[in-house]
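Appendix B, Record 12. Input sequence as logged:
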Amino acid sequence: MYAIEANQISKRYSLALSPARRLLDIMASSSRNHPNDFWALRDVSFSVPRGESFGIIGSNGSGKSTLLQILARVMEPTSGNARVAGRISAILELGAGFNPDFSGRANVRLNAAILGLSEAEIDERFGQIEEFAEIGGFIDQPVRTYSSGMAMRLAFSIAVHIDPQVLIVDEALAVGDIYFQQRCLRYLHRLRDRGITLVFVSHAPSELRALCSRCLWLDRGQVRELDDTDAVMSRYLAHAVSRTIPAEGYRHCPANAGGESQEIKKAAAVAMPLAAPVGNGSHRFGSRFAEVLGADLTDLAGRPLTKTRPGERIVVRLHVVTHRDIVNPNAGFLMRNDRGETIYGTNSTREGEVLAALQAGAELMVQFEWTAPVFAAGRYSFSVAIVDGALSEFEICDYIEDALTLDFEGPGANAYPGGYREEGYLQFDYTVRTYQAQSELLEA
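Logged structural output:
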């Protein structure tokens, strides 16, 4: 059973300057085209099963907000149709639906009533809405006196506390501070676990990976990709990076012209112990002016690692080759958990190992040695990269998404009396003591 079905949705805006021309366009057939027409959406189709968390990505102007407004029934499509089953709650635009001269309290009651709650239901949930928003006495002040963050807090709190069956969120979390963003994301995870259908738009890859199982990539109003979130995000990021790379750069890159250089690989095999080779795939992008030929995880003796435990030493190795001069090389890796959330990332420059400039054809092994922390048990992935530039501004030469994986084992039931329960990312070795205490006042 689908919560959302979008069938061939198109939306046209007329950019004609004359008001009379606009009126004629409204009265004309939807299929009528004019030179000044702008199509925000073109034949967009997809379906979302009940209980799925569905992400939407795309550059500014790609039609994301227009699509969400159609799904939320705020706007009608020019052609096609959208069916949404169940109560919809949407956060589409900062302050949308708020009367700026009404107090926050009055706006809560008004919005909740519009969304279908009875007076009794509003009274029952008002305390939860007020508590989650955390705007204090401003709840009784006019909304026009609110900061953008306060307005977002109240809007989000209303949207998630009316028991929606479908929740639509359009980049609203970017406005709030980091504390409230994390609270909102945790609440969205809980809603997802309860089976609420979620449609989530964000420019933050980590948020989409952590929250959404599938993702729709919109490009100039049309569906560019619709697949699992990891695959779509990798291709989307590769596309974004390729737009910043001059096209003529690829002519100097043997890896793009005819595959990796076997001669270079053979020569390197004699000179140094290589890291395990990595392949090309949809999760790889960059100019390839420098290239990661190999990457692996080993222990200090060079033995491959597939799993580890807290306290063990881990080595991340990158084998890099250059296809043109690299002025400021910097190699590194990024570690994520199985939900796609970033755990940690570092690179040679950040660790104080400033690499010398490399000439075309040079090879380099970069090795990171570190001690495994007490991570929560699970599988973690490592993305590896070589870039050219400073920490603040650089060009990606080669970035390989999820090139390596490593299973972290928990400390074991014997590590803590009575076993342990894993929450979050890390585990800590606690000693809990209790003491009987008696107040001096009571003794007196």
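The longest helix spans residues 178-193.
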